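User: Sequence for Thioesterase below. Tokens please.
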Amino acid sequence: MAPWLRLLKMAASAPFRQRLGWRDESALTFRVWPNDLDVNLHMNNARYLAVMDIGRFDLAIRCGFAGLVWREKLKPVVASAMVRFRRSLAPFQPFTLRSRMIGWDEKWLFIEHRIESGGELYCQAVVKALLLGRAGGLPTADLLRSLAVEAPAVEVPDWLAHWQAAEAGFRG
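Assistant: Structure tokens for Thioesterase:
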């Protein structure tokens, strides 16, 4: 199935699924279709990232900040991603994408994605994202306030702080 069809299917069904809280997990099920395959006849690396986009949209809709994105004409953008591919997804194999917020700071949201099949982890990723408006990135405090979420201003696990530090050294 084409990525945009998967996105439309998720968006159409989101209002009928349970609303999610700020830290809740989204779970979406998919299947590997022939147009998802690369020359090795397993799911293409780029397709994993495209499916993860759908997971983030599902979180936005079901957590309630998609309305803010629409009203304020914000653009959800990913600045970086850390991905570990553990196993290959085969043609027609069903899989589940699990997405959840694992941390944030004043500017960035850190979202974990896990792709699982048959109880096994196939791919795990963390993306660093923000909501971009005309004046720049929407501060996380403003997003939390719009969602009426009581949460600390910053919540970054130690290992994410190390990733942030390593990424700072990677800049060219």
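The radius of gyration is 16 Å.
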